[in-house]
Amino acid sequence: MDIVDIDFGQREAFLTDVLEGLSRKQKTLPSRWLYDDEGSELFEAITGVDEYYPTRTETRILNENAAEIGTAFGKDVVLIEYGAGAGVKTEIVLSALETPECYVPVDIAGDFLETSAERLRERFSDLRIRPITADFTADFDLPSDLPGDNRGAFFPGSTLGNLCRKEARALLSRVRGHVGPGGRFVIGIDLKKDIETLLAAYDDKAGVTAAFNLNILTRINRELGGSFDLPSFAHEARWNSEASAVEMHLVCVKSTRAAVGQRTFTFEGGETIHTESSRKYDLDDFATLVNSSGWAVEKSWTDPRSLFAVVALTA
Ligand code: AVI
Q1: Domain boundaries along the sequence of the chain
Q2: List of E strands, 173-271
């Protein structure tokens, strides 16, 4: 198979992560590599499947409480969004702000960022939009001329749950540094609930989540010249009660070997590759987590079934 031409630095980072992750006792692939073009499209499709409640529930919470959320950010806010908002959630919040000073979407995908900023400029013609291309899971500086009087942050989608505790704390501290004392942070988090609902959300009947998970092996084959035999692996969603997380695994259903770079990995039947954790919180755990990063919970909004919460924090 031809190795496709991708950015060299990116390929090296991917290769390093794959070799390191597959050398562990519990084989692992970091979840950020799930999102190539195909993976991002599949994730978009997941957000529309019946079993995946988070997206529609969070959208509903934002819609029903938009006025209060707008008030929480205050007048003339500089709104920084982590992960480029192009979607409906961003528009709900932007529409609710009183005389926003400017909107600053931050995303690692520069092209996507520009396209989504253009779309928002059409809808919010008076709003200044200043996209920043950066990986928000690592430290980065905001432009020095960004107004600092009232800054707010928005991080919908419960993506915090995909980070380990250390990374989550680092992100919370980074955002606090960005907004400064008195700044607000509105964040979406997925709540603990019955295991059946949780597992169904990560193993939909139509098999979209399975395709999303398996796509990481296709990506390794395409971008790193790997030799994974896809039919030897199957998607599985598991509840890890200790970590309070739904985990995605690729289970080896037929013993196999796969070469990546100079290495060959052996997979025994039943062995798994852990590809993602999606942590679920209750509001008390979440308050403890944010307090340890210098935030206080100001207010939270949820849906009638308490599936999901949107929480306003103050620095
Ligand atoms: C992006 N993230 C919040 C999703 C989640 O629910 O953890 C990713 C996902 N993985 C499988 N389905 C959705």
Answers
A1: 1-32+194-277, 51-191+279-313
A2: 184-190, 233-240, 245-252, 256-260, 263-267
Query: What percent of the chain is helix, strand and coil (3-state, nearest 5)?
Result: 40, 25, 35
Count CB atoms within 10 A of the CB of residue 241: 8
| Widest CA span in the chain | 60
Contact present, 219 and 253 (Cβ < 8 Å): no
- Give the model confidence (pLDDT) of 289-308 as tens digits: 999 999 999 999 999 999 99
Kindly report the number of other CB atoms within 10 A of residue 19's CB atom.
15
Q: Which of 202, 203, 215 to mutate to test the pocket of ligand 1 (most atoms within 8 A of CB)?
A: 202
**Size of the chain in residues:** 315
Whether the per-residue pLDDT at 122 is higher than 70: the answer is: yes
Enumerate residues lining ligand 1, CB below 6 A.
46, 54, 157-159, 161-162, 202, 209, 276, 278
Structure tokens given for 270 = 């039943």
- pLDDT tens-place string over residues 144-185: 999 999 999 999 999 999 999 999 999 999 999 999 999 999
Indicate the SS3 state at residue 186.
Answer: strand
Whether ipTM exceeds 0.90? yes
- Which pLDDT band holds residue 87 (cuts at 50, 70, 90)? confident
Give the residue ranges of DSSP H helices in the chain: 8-22, 37-46, 54-64, 66-73, 88-96, 110-123, 165-179, 195-201, 208-224, 283-291
Q: List the residue whose alpha carbon is closest to atom 6 of ligand 1.
A: 278
Probe target for ligand 1 pocket from 162, 187, 236, with the most ligand atoms within 8 Å of CB = 162
CB 200: neighbour CB atoms within 10 A? Answer: 18
Specify whether domain 51-191+279-313 bears CATH 2.60.120.10.
Answer: no
